[in-house]
Protein: Integrase
Amino acid sequence: MDLRLLINRDSDVSIRSQCDYLGIPRSSFYHVPQGESDENLKVMQLMDKHILEEPTAGVLTMQSMLKDVGIHCSYERVRRLMRKSNICAIYPRKHLTVLGEKKYVYPYLLRHLEISRPNQVWEIDITYVPMQQGFMYLTAIIDVYSRFIVGWGLSNSLDAESSLRVVREAISVHGCPDILNSDQGSQFTCKQYIDFLKDSEIRISMDGRGRALDNIYIERFWRTIKYQYIYLNPADNGLQLYNGIRKWIDRYHNRDHQGIDRKKPFIIYNMAA
Structure:
C-alpha cells in the first residue's frame, strides 16, 4: 500500500519521525497534487458504476449516459476521465500496443487450463475507487482456485511500482504462483514488472485485447466490493478507506461463495495451500 496512508496527523509522534520510521521523504507527504473538480469527480463515479453494468460502454456511450442525467461533456473530456479512472470498454479491436512495449505483452495461458489447487493461478488488476473527496486506486490479486485475496493495496497513481509492491508482498506471505494473469495495462507491460516475474520464475499470462472473460474472477471481485462496500461507504480519507477495505476483505474471506460450492475462500486456500 501507499505508506503515506499510515501517517497520522493527530499522533503524538511528529510527522518527521513517522516519515523517517516509514522510510519516505517528508516532502512527499506534504505534496498535494492538483485534483479534479467536483463535477469531474461526479462524472468519474457515474462512469465507474456504469461500466460495471455495461462493460462494452465506450466514450460515446458514456457521453450519452451522462447527457441523460443532465451532464454535458465533450468527447475529449469523457475520454480523459475514463483514462484517469482506468475505465476501458471491452470490445474486439486491433492490436494497438505502443512500439517498445510490445515485447512485454505475453499470451493468455488460462484457456482450457484445469485449475485444481491454490497458488496455481493468480489474477491481478487495478481499479478506481471513489471517496467523499477525490479517489484512489485499488490493486488486488485473487487466487483463482479458492477466490482468496492473496494481496491488495491502495495508491494514488497508476504507476507500475504500486502494483508491483502488491505482488512482492503477496509472494512474501504466500509464496509464488505458477501463473500470474493480468490485462495489458501499462502497469503490467513494462520491464520492471516483467523482469520481476521472470526472476521469480512465475509464468506470465495476459488477457487478449477486448476479451471480457479472460480476467473474470478479479472483475467479479471488483463488482462485489464496489456494490457491497465502496459505493455504500465513501471514505473521508485514505486511511479510513484502507481500514474499511481490510475489514471487508476479512469478512469476504470467511463467508460462503457460490462459485466454489458455497465454501469459504479462507478455508479452501489455507487447507490446500
Remarks:
- Residues 38-53 form the longest helix (16 residues).
- The beta strands are 121-130, 135-143, 148-155, 179-182, 203-206.
- The first strand starts at residue 121 and ends at 130.
